[in-house]
Design goal:
heterodimer; A: about 75% helix; B: 2 domains; eight-stranded mixed β-sheet; four-stranded antiparallel β-sheet; 12 strands; about 20% strand
Chain lengths: ~260, ~350
Amino acid sequence: MAFVLLAIVVAGPWLAPYPAELTSPQSLAGPSAEHLLGTDSIGRDVLSRMIIGGRATLSITVIAVVLALLIGAILGLLAGYLGGAVDQAIMRVLDVLFAFPAFLLAVAVVAALGPTIPNLILTIAIVYTPSMARVVRGPVLSVKRWDHVEAARSVGLSEFRIATRHILPMVVSPILVETSLMLSRAIFTITALSFLGLGPPPPDPNWGGELSSGRQFMELAPMNVIAPAAAIVFATLTFIVLANGLRDRFDVAGQR
Amino acid sequence: MSVPISQQHRVPPVEAGQSDSEPVLMVRDLGVTFPARRGHSAVAAVDVVDLDIPAGTTLGLVGESGSGKTTTGRAILQLLPSSGSVRLLGRELGGMRPGELRGMRRHMQFVLQNPYSSLHPRMTVEGILAEPLRVHRTVPASGIDARVDELLDLVGLDAEVRRRYPHEFSGGQRQRIVIARALAVDPDFVVCDEPVSALDVRIQAQIVELLTSLQQRLGVSYLFIAHDLAVVQQIADRVAVMYAGRIVELGDVADVYARPRHPYTRILLDAVPVPDPDVQRARLAAPPVQADLRSAPEPEGECVFGRNHREDGSPEWHLFDGGHGASCRYWPAGVRPDDTRA
């Protein structure tokens, strides 16, 4: 499953049978040999728009989550390891962000910044940073009391080296699991934003936008709705399965 | 158990800048207080501890669980905030800047109790042993490989194990790795915190022998923390008995074991099983009186040794011949110094 998604991101424009903006005389056609998933209201090939739109949706999601991962992991490590006032400061600020429903916060940020792709990435990253920071901070709090960390300190390592070499590797598995779960939630958020018209500006395709525009012609050409919806479900499921797989793997390997 | 009880004090290699008179480690008035938690008042885990460890010797530190042994060891290594003075190689560690302290860690190392948790589970043996060398630059980068081999040989492990991970080793082998890590940078002083209590008895003897032979070869000093008196008897030159955060008795191992002065030391020694079923059965039939010594009266006026500390301001510490000393604290009412002799 992950390979299909990867293929879409990497080779989208070459995989798609037609360019995304190419119109044909038949509009709202059903599936046919020419157009496997039919065409939309102005005669564009739905399959092509799915593949090319998936590229936009998925890459925004992945970049944003990686960003959230980096910022969140650094903040979580700092908060958990240093503790005290630093911990309080970081976590209270993140709590404020955390207190908003994720989606509401995303809508607010996009509305304030304007719906461009960089802004969308930033928005998703901001929304998901607090949960990543929390996920990292928890285990760091316990790992920093482990014997091998005290041993490292008694050997005379610097605080930075202890944090990065002796604590961070111990919290990799929760980070990985959280990351893939976050991907599935982020893709949901981004398509929802696009659905509401806060996604990447038209005419470039993306899954949320397709779903939104296809909705008007649901009775005439159901494929226009089913295709993007199925794509979203597929991607979300992929990430969840990935998360489960990673968790199983690391739970076994993580045994001392 | 073949090591003689009293070991001669070995001659240490001469350290630059170290005077003959000052011991490697000198601890004065060490105190550790754990801050108050909800519903509990602050706890003085270690209270007025004085210790000296001359170069190349071992001081055993014994006492029951919770007596503050481990806390003392960690406080000496500056892993815990503490009060009082700790001087290593003539330099005061308390109040040292973090960077400077990290440098001093080259001279003092730590062997932890549990070899299953004190090694980084995702680092190879090689990585574990090379880390202190890289940090303290005691050998040039090109010499690290050779030094790792040398260390493995020193603790009796094959050079082939260097690419393995800690979980591939048994407890005794892991403890050898921990010891190799501690000795990597040629420290002058090592705190061994119950280094054998997590191991099988047979392995215990091997590790104690290893530590003893390493001391003879390298001239390193140990603070050997243990609750097992027999192990301490094997390895230590002198022994300090700790109770409720204080040292209640300190002296040469043979002397303290043969003529305990403090009632607590006596209780501890009585608790050691005797390898003669008849004697042991007789002893169990008449168990020693286990008074809670904490509730013992504080000496008012004259203490058990006939001194009045409040009036003359002298320390609550009484010296006997051979540098053997005992505290007059925690003596149950009615127990006289002479009663404690066998």
